[in-house]
Amino acid sequence: MPRWSADGDLSVRIWKGRYDIDDVWEIVHRPENDASRFELIDGKLFEFPPAGFQHGVLAAEMYYHLYNANKRVCLGLTTARCGYHPPGDRWTLLGPSAAFTRTERVQYPLAEKYVARVPDLAVEIASFCNPLDWIHDKLPKYLQNGARLVWIVIPDKQSAEVCRLDENGDIQTESIDADGSLSGEDILPGFELALAALFS
After folding, report:
1. Closest CA to 136 of 163, 160, 116
2. What angle do CA 37, 40, 42 make, to 5 degrees?
3. CA 94 – CA 89 distance, rounded (Å)
4. Would you say residue 3 has pLDDT above 80?
């Protein structure tokens, strides 16, 4: 799992014990945890500090662009900071900065708590509170459980990574530089977002 340390500047706390999604729901509603973010991988609970300003702005921008693109075509639902867990897996909980799920995969009525599936498209912002190594480590949880695209936005390099499974079921990563753009492909047809516009 994570190759980065739980100590030091990242201030990432790994909780002792084994947890499930119901435990996380209870923990995040404690008043002392209002400012923290939690994710759960195979029963191991990770607590992250609040996002920095740059991270927050980019997350909001990504949600805004996805929401507006979908509003024109009405193909699904866009979410921000929503908790997702793979179907049948109560020991994993993912919290992408923004996500899009096509209508045919949306479960109704909408869950009050966490969504029992992963989105078709997940957006992760790499930052001190969401280390790139951590994002790479949890990619299989997205892509092997129904996600078709994961976009990793990397502010330090003004770039992005587009991650998907290849024909053999292996994770394939495509690097997009500052002159490139992100495409909704067949998940959100017509969506194009130039990284230059995102980072301007």
Report:
1. 163
2. 170
3. 11
4. no
Is residue 114 scored above 60 in pLDDT?
yes
CATH of domain 51-198: 3.90.1570.10
Token readout for 23 is: 């435990």
Q: DSSP of 119-146, one letter per residue?
A: -SEEEEE-BTTB-HHHHHHHHHHHHTTT
Beta-carbon contacts of 113 under 8 Å, excluding residues fewer than 6 positions away, are 21, 25, 83
How do the domains of the chain map onto residue ranges? 51-198
Coil, strand or helix at 42: coil
- Burial status of residue 157 (CB atoms within 10 A of its CB: 0-12, 13-18, 19 or more): middle
Q: Give the position of tokens 């990574």.
A: 161
Burial category of 186 from C-beta neighbours within 10 Å (exposed 0-12, middle 13-18, buried 19 and up): exposed
Residue 110 DSSP one-character state: P
Q: Strands 121-125, 149-154: parallel, antiparallel or unpaired by DSSP?
A: parallel
Residue with tokens 């495409």: 183
Distances from the Cα of 82 to the Cα of 41, 99, 109, 118, 181, angstroms: 16, 8, 16, 10, 25
pTM: 0.92
End-to-end Cα spacing for the chain: 34
C-alpha torsion angle, residues 70, 76, 77, 83 (rounded to 10)? -130
